[in-house]
UniProtKB/TrEMBL annotation:
InterPro entries: SCL35B1-4/HUT1. This is Solute carrier family 35 member B4. It is found in: Endomembrane system. It comes from Geococcyx californianus. The chain crosses the membrane at residues 37-55, 67-85, 97-128, 134-157. Belongs to the nucleotide-sugar transporter family. SLC35B subfamily. The keyword Transmembrane helix applies. Keywords: Membrane, Signal, Sugar transport, Transmembrane, Transmembrane helix, Transport.
Amino acid sequence: LPGIAALTFALLMSARMGIFQETLYKQFGKHSKEALFYNHALPLPGFLLLAPNIYHHAVLFSQSEPFQIPVIGLTLPIMWFYLLMNVITQYVCIRGVFILTTECTSLTVTLVVTLRKFVSLIFSILYFHNPFTAWHWLGTTFVFVGTLMYTEVWNSLGPFLAHWRKRPKEE
């Protein structure tokens, strides 16, 4: 329950931040790179509070087994390689989200980010061979029904279903 509460809170705050960004974009123009910079530069001083822990983990990372990067031939500890790959993929993802915020409404961005998280969850369940429980099915149902409601699929199906019902039955 604490995890679900934390995820719900994060989702609501993310949606609120999207609305705030949308307001700022209307007032000052759409500058996704600037927004990306400030969203990530301003919190950096807060990491000073975690400096001893970060240093400890940097030492542990440096002691991990060596890994040779294909093509480049550079050798570095495997944990630093994992961190580098994580940073690159996170940058690509978050940059895409910030570009999306300049092109779509905050509701659309929230929907896309939620769907991305859902796909990540499904990938994690499959990759780590975790059970897919009834709660997962319930969450899946909510995600898909919410997505269909947002895309207004029901409204576009209305004329099709009405036409289907009016067809004479063949005997």
